[in-house]
Design goal:
With about 325 residues, the protein is α/β, with parallel strands linked by helices. The chain is about 45% helix and about 20% strand. The chain has a six-stranded parallel sheet with strand order 1-8-5-4-2-3, sandwiched between helices. It has a two-stranded antiparallel sheet with strand order 6-7. It has a two-stranded antiparallel ribbon with strand order 9-10. α2 crosses α3 and α3 packs across α4. It is globular, with a radius of gyration of 19 Å. It starts with a strand and ends with a helix.
C-alpha cells in the first residue's frame, strides 16, 4: 500500500496505531525526528555504510530495545535506510512489520517500493537480501523541496528508467522536465509504473526483470567508483548505465538512434561523462559478470529496448560488452 500525504508522521501514527514503533534512520535524517518520540536506531549515512557490520549494529539495537513481533519498524530515510532497515526488520525474530517513509526522490520511486531489501557484501551491490514487502510506504513531498541537487539528480536517474519502460509519450514528457521541476504528481506516475510491474511479478521471476534497465552497468560503475574513492550517487551511475544498455539495445534490438541520442544528451548534460576509462574496463566487466541477475559467468543479463515501452530481457556475451561501453563513453563525452 502506497500512501501520498502532506503529513507523513501523522500517517505513520495512523498506520501503526496500537503498536510500538522503532525507527531506523541515518545520521542525516535523525536530527529531524527528535520530536517524534519513537525509539530510534541511527546508522551512519552513505552507501559505504550499507554493510553487514551496520546490519549487526541494527540487530543489536533491536535486541537492546526488546522489539517483539507485534512491533513495527519504520524506515525513515533514503534508499540505504529502506534497503538495510527493511532487511533487518524482515530477519529479526523471523520478521517484523515494516513501514517505509522515503525522504528522497530515489527512495520514493525505487528503493522503498517493491519489497527488495538487503545490503552490500564484499564490494557487490545488494549481494545479500530478501524479498519482504513493507506493510505501507508513506510518500510525502515535504522532504523533497530541500533536497540537495545531488539527491534530486539521483532520483531523476531512476525516473528516467521508468519513463523509458513506460511509453514513447512518457519518455518525451520526461525529457521536457528538469530535476528541479519534479513534483509529487511526477513521482506518483513513476511509482505507478513500478507498482504495476511488481504486482504482476513480485519476486522478479519474469516481467519485473525489466526494472533492472541500466542497473547491470550502473551497479558495477557504482561499485568501481566506491573502490576508487570517487563515489557517485546511485541514480547518477544508473543514468550512465541506462545509456550503455540503450547502446546495447541499438546494436542488438534495433532501438531507434533518436531515442539513444536523446537519452544520452540528457544524461551527459546533467551527469557528465562516463566516469570510467578503458583502463577501468577489466574491473568494470568483472563486476558486471558477478551481477546477481546473470544466469552464467560468460553472459550478462541485460534489458533491451526496441522502443520506449517495449522491453525484453536478453543475454549478452560478456566478450561483447566492451562495444556498448565504448559507444556509451563516446555519446557521453
Amino acid at each position: 500500500m502506497i500512501i501520498y500525504t502532506g503529513n507523513p508522521f501523522d500517517e505513520l501514527r495512523r498506520q501503526a496505531a496500537g503498536r510500538r514503533v522503532a525507527v531506523v534512520t541515518d545520521s542525516n535524517v535523525a536530527p529531524l525526528l527528535s520530536a517524534t518520540g519513537y525509539d530510534t536506531i541511527v546508522i551512519s549515512a552513505g552507501e559505504e555504510n550499507k554493510t553487514l557490520a551496520t546490519v549487526g549494529e541494527v540487530w543489536n539495537r533491536m535486541v537492546d530495545l526488546r522489539l517483539r513481533r507485534g512491533d513495527v519498524v519504520a524506515c525513515i530515510g533514503g534508499g540505504v535506510v529502506t534497503d538495510l532497515g527493511g532487511f533487518c526488520a524482515a530477519t529479526f525474530k523471523r520478521g517484523l512489520s515494516c513501514i517505509n517513509v522515503p525522504t528522497t526522490i530515489l527512495g520514493a520511486v525505487d528503493a522503498a517500493v517493491g519489497g527488495k531489501t538487503g545490503f552490500d557484501f564484499r564490494g557487490l551491490k545488494n549481494e545479500i537480501g530478501a524479498f519482504s514487502m513493507p506493510e505501507a510506504v508513506i510518500v510525502s513531498d515535504i522532504f523533497y523541496a530541500t533536497l540537495p541537487r545531488r539527491e534530486r539528480l539521483s532520483g531523476y536517474g531512476e525516473m528516467l528508467k521508468h519513463a523509458l519502460l513506460d511509453s514513447p509519450a512518457a519518455f518525451a514528457r520526461f525529457t521536457e522536465m528538469t530535476p528541479d521541476e519534479v513534483r509529487l504528481d511526477d513521482i506518483r506516475r513513476s511509482v505507478a509504473l513500478k507498482e504495476r510491474i511488481v504486482a504482476a511479478d513480485p519476486r522478479e521471476g519474469g516481467l519485473r526483470r525489466i526494472l533492472n534497465l541500466g542497473h547491470t552497468v550502473g551497479h558495477a560503475l557504482e561499485e568501481l567508483l566506491l573502490e576508487k574513492g570517487t563515489p557517485e550517487s546511485h541514480g547518477a551511475c544508473v543514468a550512465r548505465g541506462i545509456v550503455a544498455e540503450l547502446a546495447n539495445s541499438r546494436i542488438n534490438a534495433g532501438l531507434d538512434s533518436t531515442v539513444l541520442y536523446a537519452a544520452a544528451t540528457l544524461v551527459r548534460n546533467l551527469y557528465g561523462p562516463m566516469p570510467a576509462t578503458c583502463g577501468d574496463y577489466p574491473r568494470l566487466l568483472e563486476l558486471m559478470a558477478r551481477d546477481k541477475k546473470n544466469r552464467r559467468a560468460d553472459l550478462l543479463t541485460l534489458v533491451e529496448l526496441s522502443a520506449p515501452g517495449h522491453a525484453t530481457v536478453a543475454d549478452c556475451p560478456l566478450a561483447d560488452a566492451t562495444a556498448m561501453l565504448d559507444l556509451a563513453a563516446d555519446l557521453l563525452s
